[in-house]
Amino acid sequence: MKPEMKIDPHSVETLERFNQCIDYFVNGNFTDKDVDEAKLATFQK
Question: Matching Gene3D superfamilies, A to Z (predicted)?
Answer without folding.
Answer: Metalloenzyme, LuxS/M16 peptidase-like
